[in-house]
UniProtKB/TrEMBL annotation:
PROSITE patterns for the chain: YRDC
EC numbers for this chain: 2.7.7.87
Keywords assigned: ATP-binding, Cytoplasm, Nucleotide-binding, Nucleotidyltransferase, Transferase, tRNA processing
Signal peptide: none
Protein name per its UniProtKB record: L-threonylcarbamoyladenylate synthase
Organism expressing this protein natively: Curtobacterium oceanosedimentum
Length: 224
């Protein structure tokens, strides 16, 4: 049976984080608040855990999850061919709602699905998520909902969709919708793999970071 912990209470946070670490170490799933929506997390280096995440959401290996990281130094460890434009975006929007697709380090011992040698990375602007990431390392994280349903903005919504498929629910309270948006919105996803071969950066998903802000940092001639 899933356990739920009120992370707005210091005791609940302490206990919830301890049990979340243990669950992730066993290859189980944890729901955690981020700065955009609630996410369901798995150890990025456990193929079994990542498959559990995909199964819980009703996704196939053709939809690999992004990876949340605790900071820019981890970007260097997980990705290769990091163009200056990406470094500029990270300086501007991390921690925050920007996910960057880059070439993954070929030596990484993980299996996120059919990534074609890439990885989608983000540093979230969430105290609870960052504390967990700093303690356990990179996590494969996708929105805490069944595929096709709206993203969860509180633990009740996440639990109603994912149920006992998740071992630990970290309750950070209801998340606010970002300014300028009518409903829950995920991170903006950009594919930067083309920049290293003389191509352009592609905005894959329009999210909480506005397109014009991406263009402002990278330059209109390098964004599609």
């Amino acid at each position: 049976m899933a356990s739920r912990y009120d992370c707005t209470d210091p005791d609940g946070l302490l206990t919830g984080m301890r049990l979340a670490r243990a669950a992730l170490g066993r290859g189980e799933l944890v729901v955690v608040p981020t700065d955009t929506v609630y996410g369901v997390a798995a150890d990025a280096f456990s193929a079994t855990a990542v498959q559990r995440l995909l199964d819980a959401k009703g996704r196939t290996r053709q939809s690999p999850p992004p990876v949340l990281i605790p900071g820019p130094p981890t970007l260097e460890a997980l990705a290769t061919e990091i163009p200056q434009q990406v470094r500029d975006l990270v300086d501007e929007f991390w921690p925050g709602g920007l996910t960057v697709i880059l070439r993954a380090q070929p030596s990484l011992d993980w299996d996120l699905g059919e990534t074609r040698g890439t990885v989608a990375l983000r540093m979230p602007d969430s105290r609870i998520a960052l504390e967990l990431l700093q303690e356990v390392g990179p996590l494969a994280v996708s929105s805490a909902n069944s595929t096709g349903d709206p993203a969860a903005m509180d633990v009740d919504q996440a639990e109603s969709m994912l149920g006992d498929g998740v071992s630990v629910y970290l309750d950070g309270g209801p998340l606010a919708v970002h300014d300028g948006f009518a409903a829950s919105t995920g991170s903006t996803i950009v594919d930067a793999t083309g920049l290293s071969t003389g191509g352009k950066l592609t905005i894959v998903r329009h999210g909480v970071i506005a397109d014009e802000d991406i263009v402002r940092v990278v330059g209109a001639d390098l964004v599609t």
